[in-house]
């Protein structure tokens, strides 16, 4: 597991085939906090990535970074681990921790698209364009339950609302190339989020 940032998409040739790839800057990451089962009830480490200015860092976070002996970072993420012995405060991780792994799962935040109707958000077919349908061609239809005694809106009903801006996990992305010198990782296909969006890269849980 490592934290990274989406740089953008490009394409490369491999075996005379054109492959779309996403370029990810993965690391360097630093261990800024350790949580133990004795003190906190579980074992975990917090990784930090991407420099930010000290003036933009709140005092409690600044104390964490000073204790770890590193400069302030923008993106922090906690991971549960089986053992804490192999981690030290301030320890650095680079993209080479993923070397030898063929497939990865990537977690990111999808692009926010604002409020959307049911046709765009849930792929509804819409009402007919004629034969008495009047000014509700893109509406979702009735929201009520099946009877007067159950006329409330059911939980989980597909309706208009916010589209995007939520956590998305894309699984089984093939690792195409490593660039350990520049901390770059190229994976086949698209990953969630905009350019410069933060990502969590993990070893695939379904493909080994």
Automatic annotation (TrEMBL):
TM helices/strands, residue ranges:
none
User: Does the keyword field hold Transmembrane helix?
Assistant: no
What processes does the entry annotate via GO biological process terms?
translation
Would I find Ribonucleoprotein among this entry's keywords?
Answer: yes
Q: What PROSITE patterns has UniProt attached to this entry?
A: RIBOSOMAL_L3
Q: Which Pfam families does this UniProt record tie to the protein?
A: Ribosomal_L3
Q: What GO molecular function annotations does the UniProt record carry, in alphabetical order?
A: rRNA binding; structural constituent of ribosome
GO annotation, cellular component aspect? cytosolic large ribosomal subunit
The superkingdom of the source organism is Bacteria
Q: Which UniProt keywords apply?
A: Ribonucleoprotein, Ribosomal protein, RNA-binding, rRNA-binding
Q: Which family does it belong to?
A: Belongs to the universal ribosomal protein uL3 family.
Briefly state the protein's biological role. One of the primary rRNA binding proteins, it binds directly near the 3'-end of the 23S rRNA, where it nucleates assembly of the 50S subunit.
Q: Which HAMAP family match?
A: Ribosomal_uL3_B
What is annotated about its quaternary structure and interactions? Part of the 50S ribosomal subunit. Forms a cluster with proteins L14 and L19.
Name the chain's protein: Large ribosomal subunit protein uL3
Q: Where does this protein come from, organism-wise?
A: Pseudoleptotrichia goodfellowii F0264
Question: What lineage does UniProt assign to this protein's organism?
Answer: Bacteria, Fusobacteriati, Fusobacteriota, Fusobacteriia, Fusobacteriales
Name the encoding gene, please: rplC
């Amino acid at each position: 597991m490592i934290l990274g940032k989406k740089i953008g998409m490009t394409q490369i040739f491999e075996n005379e085939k054109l492959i779309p790839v996403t370029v990810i800057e993965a690391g360097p990451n630093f261990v800024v906090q350790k949580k133990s089962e004795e003190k906190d009830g579980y074992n975990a480490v917090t990784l930090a990535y991407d420099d930010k200015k000290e003036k933009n860092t709140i005092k409690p976070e600044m104390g964490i970074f000073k204790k770890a002996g590193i400069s302030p970072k923008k993106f922090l993420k906690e991971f549960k681990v089986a053992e804490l012995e192999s981690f030290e405060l301030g320890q650095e991780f680079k993209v080479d921790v993923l070397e030898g792994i063929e497939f990865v799962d990537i977690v990111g935040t999808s692009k926010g698209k604002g409020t959307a109707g049911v046709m765009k958000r849930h792929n509804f077919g819409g009402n007919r364009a004629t034969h008495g349908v009047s000014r509700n061609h893109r509406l979702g239809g009735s929201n009520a339950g099946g009877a007067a005694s159950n006329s409330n809106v059911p939980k989980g009903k597909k309706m208009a609302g916010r589209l995007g801006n939520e956590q998305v996990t894309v699984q089984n992305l093939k690792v195409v190339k490593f660039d350990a010198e520049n901390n770059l990782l190229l994976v086949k296909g698209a990953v969630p989020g905009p350019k410069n969006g933060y990502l969590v890269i993990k070893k695939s849980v379904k493909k080994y």
